[in-house]
# Entry
Amino acid sequence: MDLADLVRGVNHHIEQALEAELKPKGMSLHHYRVLEALAARNGQPMGDLAARLFIDSPTLTRIIDRMVASAEVYRGPDPHDRRKVLVFLSRKGAAQFEGFAATGASVEQQMLDQLGTSKAATLARLLSELIDLPFSRRAHSARENGAVSHK
# Structure
């Protein structure tokens, strides 16, 4: 199994575990992720939010539209660039996230506990390094041609 498959597999495992906790309480995974991202940094442009959540723009727009309609978030102008629109967490959304934050933290902590502190810290550091790497067209082509192995 190559690195990309491993990362997707771990992400899928985490999302399934989190969704299993959220769904019975009436919260979707994407909805939770938006609340979580805005609780961490309120007032984000849609593009930044989509990139952070790894969601395409049309999907995020639909999610945000529903959340605006239910008054969990609202849109407002960027004070530094009036052409930009930012998404903000409302009081209602913040209160809702507060009720679910422990659920998300618990799911993550259960997985990290299985790894142990040292391995979890190493994994987090390595994944952060990978996310920060610039995408290389040449490396991508080499991988497609079988020249690069992650095993």
